[in-house]
Amino acid sequence: MPAETTVGEALVRLLEEYGVAHVFGVPGVHTIELYRGLTQSPIRHILPRHEQGAAFMADGYARATGQPGVCFLISGPGLLNAATAIGQAYSDSVPLLVIASAIARADLGMGRGRLHEMQDQRAAAETVSAWSETALAAAAIPDLAARAFADFAVKRPRPVVLNIPIDLFPEPAAGDWTARPLPAIALPAEWDVREAAGRLARSSKPMLIVGGGAVRASAEITALAEALQAPVVTTIAGKGVVPNGHPLLAGAMMAASEIRDLIRAADTVLAVGTEFASPDFWDGEIEVPGVLIRVDIDPAELSDAYRADLPICADAKATVAAINRELPALLLNNPARAVPDLSALRHSVYGAGDAARARHRAALEGFRRALPEDAIVATDMTRIAYAGNEIFPVSGPGQWLHPVGFGTLGYALPAAIGAKIGRPETPVAALVGDYGFQYTAMELMTAVELELSLPILIWNNDALGEIRAGMRQAGFAPLAVEQANPNFAQFAAACGAGYERAGSPRAIETAVTAALQADGPTLIEAIAVEF
């Protein structure tokens, strides 16, 4: 590294070596040296309108590509503006590398009233990340970057935050600033593989529960289900691991009584890459009375209340592939199983619900018809997306992006932008409620600026519909849940985006089809009462 290269420039070059192609961020006076580095780099910088948008975009990028999303943020308010989105990524196991400036080393913890000063920025960031560290010397930065990318390679993927004091950025970058080899994934123990394969082979009613930790193991999971003739249930994060239309896919509907009955009836359950999170169940926990085999990269999940009879702490893809290699010989000694008929179960769950659910179902059907099979949909915390979690069909993993665990509003639009940046040749759309859209509505300008062909379906019921329904169910008149919305047509026009009003499933289909061919984003306003 030439002596005249600054720490900021060297860090950008280091990110290049680790394969970073895009960075999402808002520049500030404290991060100028990072941006000097970007002027000399093939890394593309995406400028959102708010730091929360930057981190949501990085999240959508990571989910769509499987690569870490990277953010450049300023200290204090910049980092805190992004904290909600970082927390969402932590909850949903999404790899983000957040690089934030910090106040000068001599000022850390001194309370001198410096610009952007916090009592302890590192500690604040640690509450929503796997870890947060402050580099106190230039030589520490390559070490921390290596630690981050090693964690992304082999550990449960989660955000990490690297805080760099502002007086470090312009310093000369001495020492070794090259990327380091990444560690290999954790392979399962041979005994565990043989034991799991034996138990599954001997089972008369096996089934699979598949979560977001299995998104890289789609082919292996599908092959195992077929070998066992075992039904598969996915979590919301696991949607698409077994493709829509597969006869063994029961769906992503773990809250449904029919699915709970299926799990209770199984004598052996293989759960891969799932933490059995309550947002997937809604109503309490689930019962798993049969033998439970759990595969997870995170040892903490293997010691929780869902006690595994056989816990396997290893990579999901490698473990399921190893089980598949053991099974054929074992199945020769076991009677063939009948192919389960799940069509009645799927039909029952798909058609369940009240009048509101029927409206959501009709709108989602129009939405689905317009989208190509491989389309990615980023969704928000809104009732129509909750219906979509269960019934919207996708054909592969990473195609349905939903803020499951942290459950924040405002996710859909910036996440869709990040996904489109990461996979520009793939159709991407956003599904958002009228209120949640306003959390990050300013990012429409980012999509306009980037000329992204992006349909944004806004489900407009002039309310926080889920909360309004909850208040009514609780027996009192709804309060503070019905808001005045902007004129979405005028808002789109002011931003330079397209606009369509859709009052039927067919109108949604037509509008989304056209939006996919447009030279920029299109707001498509679906009026709930018209469905």
Summarize the structure in short.
The chain has 531 residues and is α/β, with parallel strands linked by helices. It has helices at residues 7-17, 32-39, 51-65, 77-91, 121-126, 140-154, 190-202, 218-228, 257-265, 316-331, 343-351, 355-370, 383-391, 412-422, 434-437, 444-449, 465-473, 488-495, 505-515, and strands spanning 22-25, 44-46, 69-73, 96-102, 131-134, 160-165, 206-210, 232-234, 249-251, 268-272, 291-296, 310-313, 376-379, 400-401, 428-433, 455-460, 498-502, 522-527. The protein starts with 6 loop residues before the first helix and ends with a strand.
Note down, in words, how this protein is organized.
With 531 residues, the protein is α/β, with parallel strands linked by helices. The chain contains 19 helices and 18 strands. The chain has three domains: 7-165, Thiamin diphosphate (ThDP)-binding fold, Pyr/PP domains (Rossmann fold, 3-Layer(aba) Sandwich), CATH 3.40.50.970; 190-346, TPP-binding domain (Rossmann fold, 3-Layer(aba) Sandwich); 353-530, Thiamin diphosphate (ThDP)-binding fold, Pyr/PP domains (Rossmann fold, 3-Layer(aba) Sandwich). The chain has helices at 7-17, 32-39, 51-65, 77-91, 121-126, 140-154, 190-202, 218-228, 257-265, 316-331, 343-351, 355-370, 383-391, 412-422, 434-437, 444-449, 465-473, 488-495, 505-515, and strands at 22-25, 44-46, 69-73, 96-102, 131-134, 160-165, 206-210, 232-234, 249-251, 268-272, 291-296, 310-313, 376-379, 400-401, 428-433, 455-460, 498-502, 522-527.
